[in-house]
Amino acid sequence: METNTNSAVNVDRISALPPLILHRILSFLSLEEVVPTSVLSKTWRQLCIYNVPQIVFYLKSLHVLDLGSCKLEPPRRTVTLSSLRRLCLSFVYVEDEVIRDMVAGCPLIEYMNIDNCRGFKSLELVGLHKLKEIKLYSHQTGLEQLYISGVNVHSVGITILNTLCEINVAPCKNLTLL
Length: 178
Hints:
Elements: H1 19-27, H2 31-37, H3 42-50, E1 64-68, E2 71-72, E3 86-90, E4 93-94, H4 96-104, E5 111-115, E6 122-125, E7 133-139, E8 145-148, E9 155-161, E10 166-168
Parallel strand pairs: 1-3, 2-4, 3-5, 5-7, 6-8, 7-9, 8-10
């Protein structure tokens, strides 16, 4: 008797779809539904790691956002992270317009940590009245300009290696640690 080794149980046709279609499928899921898909297969894990779902930009009740080893695509509409207090990005690819839109959509942010992120050349932190502490570590990332203006900023930690970068923190009148 012959055994069929290509049974329906062993075939994963969804993971064989092109990445564009898989991203479209993920876009219909909530963040809580997306995270468990990363255990389904290597294909789904790579999709979840490298491309953050758009829903992340619109989670109004989110207080902490800690992203690592991923890519942030431009948001489709105005970012509304209206409750976000802490933003930590590590090894994230993010372009100038995306980081600008994220910052603009986080009016209550108090703490930012940006660690070895790539893709953006300018970082302007303006209009963040609750911002107190910023940490930036950059190693050959192409950052050319950093401008921080915040009345409540008291601590700024900057480590930029192998890159010439214009840094302006003069508007931070309450700065106690640089």
